[in-house]
Amino acid sequence: MDIFMKEPAEAVSAGSAAAPSQADQKQEDEYLTIALTKGRLASQTMELLGRAGFYCEELGDKRSRKLVFVNEEQKLRFFLSKGPDVPTYVEYGAADIGVTGSDIIMEENRSVYEVLDLDFGKCRMCVAGPETARELLRHHEMIRVASKYPNIAKDYFYNRKHQTIDIIKLNGSVELGPMVELADVIVDIVETGSTLHENGLDVLEEVCPISARMIVNQVSMTMKAGRIRDFISRVRDAVNA
Q1: Does pLDDT of 20 surpass 90?
Q2: Label partner for 224 (CA 20 to 30 A): which of 20, 109, 163, 167?
Q3: Does residue 31 sit within a domain?
Q4: Got the DSSP string for 123-143?
Q5: Vertex 96 angle, CA 218 and 80, to 5°
Q6: How far is CA 109 from CA 36, 59, 91, in A?
């Protein structure tokens, strides 16, 4: 979807100094609410937003126990959330905009617009396991797959590899799956691969690259179109600078 839709011809007049409409003024008076993923991703996001000219000093106070942070001057409201909850907040309109990893966006599969790759938080979603599992993948045999991302794993094996699998949902230390013979392989995020190697596992196949993405509520994209388009444009310029 092209979010930067051209304005209707009748909206563009020769006299560009016309006073803003009531709708435009209402947009300017409304807050944009932004859901951030807690931790390093939030810090990287705020650094990027700072380069784009958006700030929130309250977010820099490490002693604060507040959950919602506001920049009254720029009419911006921020809150911190666990990554998997960000698409939920955005889908239901609790946040106009959210930032989280593309792995979470794919896994949650919420009704939101994904509008911008922020070019940080980069890693890979991979199939990993012992070297002996490589033949099982090559010959498309029935295998057991452990993952925190069952939807991504199912899509990869069913729709791209056309391989039948038994999915086992785990919430942590998925590397244990093959080590204790719970699963043949795992599907998980890989940054350096050092954890895999320390546990006798290797990357066997790459599912997709992962990075931080910006998502937008579908209703907000219409109701606050001017502000959101401006926000995305300035952030995109900061990403590309």
Answers
A1: no
A2: 109
A3: yes
A4: EEEEEEE-GGGHHHHHTT--E
A5: 135
A6: 18, 29, 10
DSSP annotation of 159 reads: I
Question: Does residue 223 sit in the same domain as residue 201?
Answer: no
Do 83 and 157 sit in the same domain of this protein?
no
Whether 80 shows a pLDDT value over 70: the answer reads yes
The residue to which tokens 């016309």 are assigned? 18
DSSP at 101: E
β-strands 113-117, 212-216: how paired? antiparallel
Q: What is the CATH number of the domain that holds 196?
A: 3.40.190.10
143 and 171 both lie in a single domain = yes
Lowest average pLDDT, out of 50-64, 98-112, 119-133, goes to 50-64
Strand order in the sheet with 143-147: 165-169, 143-147, 185-190, 123-129, 202-210
Amino acid letter for position 157: F
Rg for the chain, CA atoms, rounded: 22
Nearest to 37 by CA among 97, 106, 112: 97
Q: What 3-state DSSP class applies to 22?
A: helix
- pTM of the full predicted structure? 0.85
Q: Identify the domain containing residue 235 by its residue range.
A: 26-121+211-240
